[in-house]
Design brief:
- This protein has about 375 residues and is an all-alpha fold.
- It folds into three domains: about 90 residues; about 100 residues, no CATH class; about 150 residues, no CATH class.
- Helices cover about 80% and strands about 0% of the residues.
- The chain has 17 helices and two strands.
- It has a two-stranded antiparallel sheet.
- A hairpin with a 2-residue loop joins strand 1 and strand 2.
- Helix 3 packs across helix 14.
Length: about 375
C-alpha cells in the first residue's frame, strides 16, 4: 500500500470518527435543549439553513469571474478564492436539508402516497425549472451561449447544462423520484450501515469518470447522477429520522462543532496551496466530503442557535430569504451572465468593478423580481 493510501485511510478513520461521534452522542441521555423552533409545521432553523445556502450560492457565481480572471499569485486572487472556496458546500447542504425534510415527512405521514408526493415535487421544482430554462434559452441564443435547435433545447432540459447551477435540479429530482427506496432504507437499514455504504459509494464516484476513461468510455455527467452525492442525502435522512435528538446533541456539543471551523479553514488553505502552487498535499475531492460535512453540521448548529435567540429582525430577514430562495436560485445566474456580458461589451473590464456590479445584479435583481411577482400574485388573489 502506498504512503498516500495510508494517509488517506488514517484521515478517514479520524475524521469520520469525529463526525459520527457528534451525531451518535444524540443517543445518550442529556438535558433537553429548550427552544421552540417549530413554526407552521416546519422547523425554523431548517429555513434559516436554506436561506444562508441561497445567499452563498449567489456568492459563488458572483466571485467566479475573479477565479478565472485574476492571477493566481496575486493577493486579490486569494481574497476572492477563500470565500468562493468556503462557500462550495452549498449543493451537498441543499441535498442534506431536502433529505432531512423528507425523513420528517416519513415520520409525519408514514404512508404518504408516492404519486401525490412526486406530483407536488414536479409542480414545485421541475415545472419552474423548465420555465426558467426556456427564459435562459431565449436570451442565451443571441448571446451565442445556446444552440438553436429542438435537439439542443431538449438536451439542455434533460442534462441541466444550459447554465452552471441547473445540475442541482437534475440531482435533486433523482432523489425525489426514488422516495419509496429512501422510505424503505430508513425503515429497514441501521443508520451506521447506510452511512458507511453511502460514504464508500460517494468516494468511488469521485473516480468513476477516470475509470471509464481508462476503459475508453467518455462520461461527462458524473456530477449529475445521485450516487455522487449519496452520502449527504443518506446523512440527511437519518438526521431527519431522529431530528430533534440529533439537533439538540449538535447544539449541546456546540463548542466542538464551532471549533470544527478550524478544520474547514485548514481544508480551504490546503486547497488554495494546491490550486495556486501546483503542489500535491492531499486528494482534495476526498477531503472536500469531510469539509462539506463539517460545514453542514456547523451551519445546522448556528441555525438552531439562531432559532432560539432574540435576534428577531435577522430571523425575519432569513425567513423571507428562505421564501424567495428557489426563485433566486433559478434566476440569479441569468442576471449575472447577461449583466456581465452587457458591461463588458460597453467597455467595463476591470475585475474589481465587475465583481461589485455582479454582486448587485446577483443579489438585487432576483430578490427584486421575487418581491414584484409576489405582489402581483397577491393582487390577483384579491
Amino acid at each position: 500500500m502506498s504512503r498516500v493510501s495510508v494517509y488517506n485511510a488514517a484521515g478517514y478513520i479520524l475524521t469520520w470518527g469525529y463526525i459520527l461521534g457528534i451525531i451518535n452522542s444524540s443517543n445518550k441521555k442529556m438535558k433537553e435543549f429548550h427552544m421552540n423552533s417549530k413554526i407552521n409545521g416546519s422547523y425554523e432553523e431548517l429555513n434559516y439553513f436554506n436561506a444562508v445556502c441561497c445567499l452563498l450560492v449567489v456568492l459563488i457565481h458572483t466571485l467566479s469571474l475573479g477565479i478565472t480572471g485574476l492571477s493566481r499569485s496575486s493577493w486579490q486572487f486569494a481574497a476572492i478564492y477563500f470565500p468562493w472556496n468556503l462557500s462550495a458546500f452549498v449543493v451537498p447542504a441543499f441535498l442534506f436539508n431536502g433529505a432531512v425534510k423528507m425523513a420528517l415527512l416519513f415520520k409525519a405521514s408514514p404512508s404518504a402516497p408516492y404519486p401525490k408526493y412526486i406530483w407536488r415535487r414536479i409542480k414545485k421544482i421541475y415545472v419552474p425549472y423548465i420555465a426558467w430554462v426556456i427564459v435562459y434559452y431565449i436570451i442565451f441564443i443571441p448571446m451565442g451561449i445556446a444552440q438553436l435547435s429542438v435537439k439542443a433545447f431538449l438536451y439542455y432540459i434533460v442534462s441541466g447544462k444550459l447554465a452552471s447551477h441547473f445540475y442541482y435540479i437534475i440531482i435533486t429530482m433523482q432523489f425525489y423520484l426514488l422516495m419509496p427506496l429512501w422510505r424503505w432504507v430508513v425503515k429497514h437499514i441501521p443508520w451506521y450501515l447506510a452511512v458507511t455504504v453511502s460514504i464508500f459509494v460517494t468516494i468511488l464516484m469521485l473516480k468513476f469518470t477516470s475509470v471509464l476513461q481508462h476503459a475508453g468510455i467518455t462520461f461527462n455527467y458524473s456530477d449529475r447522477v445521485f450516487p455522487t452525492y449519496l452520502f449527504f442525502w443518506i446523512l440527511g435522512l437519518y438526521v431527519g429520522s431522529n431530528y430533534e435528538a440529533i439537533r439538540n446533541s449538535i447544539v449541546r456539543n456546540k463548542i466542538y462543532v464551532l471549533t470544527s471551523g478550524i478544520m474547514i479553514l485548514v481544508y480551504s488553505f490546503i486547497s488554495y496551496i494546491q490550486y495556486t502552487r501546483s503542489v500535491y498535499i492531499y486528494d482534495m475531492g476526498y477531503l472536500k466530503i469531510f469539509s462539506d460535512t463539517l460545514w453542514i453540521l456547523l451551519l445546522l448548529c448556528l441555525s438552531s442557535l439562531l432559532a432560539g435567540s432574540g435576534l428577531v429582525r435577522l430571523r425575519r430577514v432569513l425567513h423571507w430569504i428562505h421564501g424567495a430562495s428557489f426563485q433566486v436560485y433559478l434566476s440569479h445566474v441569468l442576471f449575472i451572465t447577461v449583466g456581465t456580458y452587457l458591461l463588458q461589451s460597453h467597455g467595463v473590464t476591470e475585475t474589481a468593478l465587475l465583481l461589485v456590479l455582479r454582486a448587485i445584479l446577483g443579489y438585487g435583481c432576483p430578490f427584486a423580481l421575487y418581491f414584484i411577482l409576489k405582489k402581483i400574485r397577491l393582487c390577483f388573489k384579491r
